[in-house]
Every structure is written in C-alpha cells, then in structure tokens.
Request: fold
Amino acid sequence: MKFTVNRDIMLKAIGIADSVISSKNINTILSNCLFKIEKDSIQIIATDNEIGVRTKIDAQSDSAFSFTVNSKKLSSIMKELPDDEIIIEVDDSMMINLKSKNVKGNYILYGTSSEEYPELPDIKIDNSIDIEQSVLREMIKKVIYAAATDTIKPVFNSIYIVSEKPGTLTAIATDSRRLCMITRSIQSESIVGEGIILPLKTVNEVFRLLGNSGICRLSFDSNQCYFRINETEIISRIVDGQFPNYKQIIPKEYSHKVIIETGRILDSVKRAMIFTREPANKIVMTIDKDTLLIEANTPELGKAEEEVPVESESREKIFLGINSQFLLDTIKQIDSFSFICGITGQMSPVTIIPEDDKNYISVIMPIQIKTASE
Reply:
C-alpha cells in the first residue's frame, strides 16, 4: 500500500488535526491521528473524545486503506526531508516507510490498525447557519478575552452563541466579573433557538482555522456542534448547563455618560497598571466635569496619577475602582476613535460601548473603594 503526497500540504493538514490531541491522553490510540487513504485524497482525523477534527487533502494512492500513527513524529520526519513530494508505504503490519527521491535512506514509523479508532459523526445539515469567516473571526476575537480560562464552571469557560432574530448572530462571553457581547448581521435567516454554549477549546480551534474570506457553516443538535471551514470539519460537544442571563447583567440605562478617547486612555491605563498588583490590579478613576483622573497606589511599590480629558454630561464627581487589566483587555478590542462609558453607581456594572459600533457591548464589575485616594 503506497501513496504520494505534497509535503507542505500534508504538514499543514497534520498540524490542523494534531492540535486537538491532548498530551495527557491515557488511551494510546488517541495519541495518534487516523489517516484514511482514498485513491485521490487523504482524510486526517484526530479526537480527544470531546472535540474531533477531520481535514481532507489531495493525494495519489494505489489503493484504499487506513492506519493510525503518532502524527508529531510523522511531521518531524517529513520536515527534514528535502523534496516537495513524499512517498509513504504501509505494509500489513502497519510499518510506515517514508521515502524521498533525493535521499537514500529508510525512515520507518510503527503505526497501528484503524479498527479501534473512534468514528467521528458526519456533519449534520439541520439547524445550519452560514456565516462569513471574517465575521465569525471578528466576533470571537472581540469576546473571547472575557471568558474564564479555568474549567471549574464550564459555562464560564465558553462562548455562548445565539441569534435573537433572523439575520443576526450574537456571541457572549463572561467570567462572572466581566462580560462582552457582540452582534453581527449574517445572510442566513436561521435562528439558534435557545443558543448553544461552545467550549473554549473548540472556539480556539475554530478561530485558528478561520480566514479573511470564504464561508463557515455552523450546524448543531442537542448535544453537539459542527463547523465546516474550507476542507476541515470540527465536531464538538456542547456545554451542558445554563448560560448566565446576560440581558439582566447589561445595564439598560445609566446615570453618567462619559465619552473617552480610546488611544489616549489605553496608554494611560498601561502606565498606571505598572503601579498595581495582581490579581486586583486596582486603579481608581475620578471623573470631574470634563477630566478623568486615573490613580494607582500600592504600598512599597509606588503611585501614579494621570489626567485624561473626557466629555461628560454630568456635573457630579464620580469615583470608581476598577481592575485595570479588565479595562485594558476591553479597550484593546475597540476600533472606534472613542467610546461611551456608562456608569450608574460606584458598585454598579460599568458599560463600555464604542461610539461607532453600538452592537458591541462590554461590562465590567467595579472594585469597592473606601476613598478616592485609596
């Protein structure tokens, strides 16, 4: 059994599939990738039993067969071979021999039969939504920072996808201390029912594959979601649980509205953050008429004060404690020249909305402060 394949194309495909393989796998078969060889193509499949990836490339084969092998070792050997075209031979005992026209040598890996490798389900076409890759990529990029990175509560270690009305798609992420939501128009009229909760690992894999052109198809059922991006399919479980009621978290109105220049406060917060300590990274913001005073004061470390001009409708002085890292993460994703900062009270959620994009909303819970100079 023998097939010929372009080295660079094969390496890229292996990299796509291999990324989901966990180094903590106890099951040896799941430490390998499955290679399904057809007459003119190869399917490369990997799974950790939570998420699966299946990608397809062109190849020339003398027969149809399949095997599994440690894909990292296979990639390592292929990278060191000089030719664009690689010949791979597999015998009945699953010995895998790599050959190159300009290298006289034998490079043999020991593979295994594909019989015990778990089958991935086919992508379903029911409940499917087509969305431009560039749009979905932007949506993920702008909310993923607000998701929790631990796995204690899976609903926080995820992104919630819902369509509140036909022709739109909304993505929300929260770690319970901050929340980010973005809504974009899509061509599909399908609705994501009550919404689906996607694990962060799945979202990261999808984001890695998304480009600036082309369509991504998202399908789902009660237990799983399916993505098709070009010649690659991702199959993943859906998080079982109830996502927080984001509509109740986002303030519908606020008593103080402040317009702040994005680039200017970004630089100011970066400087002030040097004088804070994790995990609170606390800074105090005092808004007095058209001036925002940013203060950071950490004993045995130092303190910083900086004034930033703003536009404020309120004549009342406002004091607010906030996590500077959370604020920085939020501001970095704003493309508008300025944003609206909505404040209701010293311990009420702070709302941040870009002036040029009212469909992108971030919320940060403030930190309690005793005095303005603390």
